[in-house]
């Protein structure tokens, strides 16, 4: 049967010449046989031997060149084809027999095949044969004539061509892979990372790399894969050199021509200053490539080799092609870095240059730009000195990430600061800021939180406009989100006629720290915001005690854990610890008459305070008492109520609960009947608390009760 395996040249054979025959024949190489023809002479000149196989007579003629192909002398070939089979590998012999049988049977006219011979010294040699089958009028094959030749050089050439083609494919793949990697690089640092990693060196086929960028009239090395010793750098540091110093990278920039140096002798003779570097780092050859983009040379690339002595045309072409891709990527990255620096500078100039000192505590602020290029965020913070040794704290975020958002942010920050310094209440400051933004020629809105803080008393008056609530870390280490009622974002609130922002009062205890931040701290693409909120709370809880250190911890944390690629602005407010071994702790909450959620928020604040003070045993009694006193104030007066809960230390520690209202009418304890639906409030207060009373105020009254704690 015919063998269809591929020959060494990669082509399928047509019909295989047999080297063993079915009928023996006398050698046609003996004297007296057919004389060589002119055609035989021409074949011999081309290293080809001829054969003539008479199938009917069984004679087989193989000329002298053919004998040389089989590595036979004339006296070693007896004219029997089986003698040739001894020279052919058995697998090839069987394959050739089957193939010629098929060719004869199927009526083929020609054949050609490669096969392996075993020379007299035992080495293998590739040979090639091709011939023509002659047939009589009845299609009976009677003769085969053809040639046989040594195919070693041909196959070696073919193998070399295949290797060359593979090398070219690898080089093409290398250029493509490098170009794709550089296309993803955004900054100059990204480009240098692509070049200096192991894959970058592999693509260039180099053992080391140095990248220099032109900076005025000097060459500055920005990336190297291997640093020379400190002693060598101390003698002659090449990290910053003048373009006229005659060094190879500078020369490549000035001449704009690539230079390939194949030996260390040539390298050190032409550039003597490189001799100690070449000896220490084992450099044997180098390539120095200019990096030009848009008719301007921006730098040069040096490639170093430890074993190369020759640069082929393909090597030079691949280096030049890759250097062109590097130049284009570097130019784009340098432009990006310039734009980002411009955007960061613009953002920085719009934020406060100096944070004023505050009484009773300290403030730390941070801003982290998360966008790229000219994308400028609208996040901001501000710290505003107020009358009465108070301080105003602002954190906000204008919608959008462009220069327009930054411009609006600058105007809004200045307007809000002006309203605050005029002495307005937090609700008024926020309402006026909303109207200011609505009057601007823009469709942008802004979220914001404003805090009027008196750290001497710990009183915080807050207004929130679509912004994150504050996060408080108590001195005990417990962390929680403060319940601050909010309204619509600035601008939108005015458009919808809802800029009457509610105000919330909280008390920051001594040694407590409060965080105000923008949503970049909790939002991350592909992650639920609840996970981001929980991650931020955990980071706040686990962070260091110092305010500045905590700010660094939060803003410089893992972006996948804290926030996203968005901008981040944060402000930390820390109240200093009070004198004495145990400072008084107090929390205050306003409950507005028209606010249906006020009581629920008050209960949450009470539970939060009692848990922080370790007084959870009184939680239900305190909540029930507070509900009764607040309800009385809301039902029987014309305004809301101000609730204060305080942990009092000393010889008789207790939980003190106070509810203030604007009515001067004192409460009266009654004795309701069995079917009465009211009148039992003070009886309940008297039963649950240890003591209670009423204090008249200038405008209104204060109803208080105390819950004793075990000493």
TrEMBL record:
Sequence ranges assigned to domain GAF in this UniProt record: 183-340
SUPFAM superfamilies, sorted: ATPase domain of HSP90 chaperone/DNA topoisomerase II/histidine kinase (SSF55874), GAF domain-like (SSF55781), PYP-like sensor domain (PAS domain) (SSF55785)
InterPro entries found in the cross-reference section: Bact_Sigma-Reg, GAF, GAF-like_dom_sf, HATPase_C_sf, HATPase_dom, PAC, PAS, PAS-like_dom_sf
CDD domains: HATPase_RsbW-like, PAS
Top-level lineage group: Bacteria
Gene3D superfamilies, A to Z: 3.30.450.40, Histidine kinase-like ATPase, C-terminal domain (3.30.565.10), PAS domain (3.30.450.20), PPM-type phosphatase domain (3.60.40.10)
Keywords tagged on the record: Hydrolase
Location of the PPM-type phosphatase domain: 358-575
Stretches for region Disordered: 1-40
Membrane-traversing stretches: none
PANTHER family per UniProt: STAGE II SPORULATION PROTEIN E (PTHR43156:SF2), STAGE II SPORULATION PROTEIN E-RELATED (PTHR43156)
Protein name: SpoIIE family protein phosphatase
Organism: Kitasatospora arboriphila
Source species taxonomy: Bacteria, Bacillati, Actinomycetota, Actinomycetes, Kitasatosporales
